[in-house]
Specification:
This protein is of the alpha/beta class. About 35% of the residues lie in helices and about 10% in strands. Strands 3-2-1-4-5 form a 5-stranded parallel β-sheet, with helices on both faces. Strand 1, helix 1 and strand 2 form a beta-alpha-beta unit. Helix 1 packs across helix 7 and helix 7 packs across helix 8.
């Protein structure tokens, strides 16, 4: 009787997991693509730190190999309504949300996060990093554009041992990059994402209820409406 041929181990990937709707879908995309994911989340001094608990729930449900929650305090720089004592914009019309860079932009946040993810991937022996950015419903953030993702991938392959020695090529996967919020929700629903576990609000109540009025809440609400899916968000 011949021994059954052992199946190869699935490739590892690092997924940036904020706890929001987009990152939850990116995690599901990594699993669907056959990767064994590890998740990386950040407690960076954000006012909506409730998203960390959402990230924990999502990582547990997806049974990730490892979930690292890293503490970096971006409040020392400020410059954003999410990390400084600045008012979070509310009730902005769609045209205003897509015009210019809003005060909720955290300077260089995705560059910082991807740099940590790259270091994590190197240690794991992984060449794949997933990030849930999208260039359509993105509130004007410069680090959610395709040009940024492509540029960071080039940096990843210039600034790492594996890249220099030619033992592997890093890939930054942004599977939601060209999808609207409604398309993301439809796709995530097909992949089994439980959006009730996610948190998106920039200015939640002390009880963790979404404000329903910030840019993130409005884009989320609009996405569920256009997707024809029930919105599981608990609003204040």
């Amino acid at each position: 009787m011949t021994a059954e041929k052992a199946r190869p181990d699935p490739p590892r990937a690092v997924v940036l997991l904020s706890g929001g709707l987009d990152s939850a879908t990116a995690l599901a995309e990594a699993v669907a693509a056959g990767f064994l994911p590890s998740a990386l989340s950040f407690r960076y001094g954000q006012r909506h730190a409730i998203e960390i608990e959402a990230a924990r729930r999502l990582a547990e449900r997806a049974r990730v190999e490892r979930h690292v929650i890293l503490d970096i305090d971006l409040r020392v720089f400020g410059g954003s309504a999410l990390t400084a004592d600045l008012e979070v914009p509310k009730d902005r019309p769609g045209a205003e949300m897509s015009a210019g860079v809003p005060i909720t932009y955290v300077p260089a946040r995705n560059t910082i996060f991807l740099s940590f993810a790259l270091a994590f991937a190197e240690v794991l022996g992984s060449f794949d990093i997933f990030i849930g950015v999208n260039a359509l419903d993105y509130s004007g953030y410069p680090d959610c554009r395709p040009e940024f993702v492509a540029a960071f991938e080039r940096v990843a392959n210039l600034a790492t041992r594996a890249g220099v020695e030619g033992t592997g090529r890093f890939r930054i996967h942004a599977p939601l990059l060209h999808l609207s919020k409604a398309e993301i929700i439809r796709r995530g629903t097909l992949l089994g994402v439980d959006y009730a576990l996610t948190a998106s609000c920039y200015d939640p109540s002390p009880e963790g209820l979404a404000c329903g009025r910030c840019d993130s809440c409005q884009l989320r609400r609009k996405g569920f409406l256009e997707a024809g899916a029930p919105d599981p968000t608990r609003y204040s």
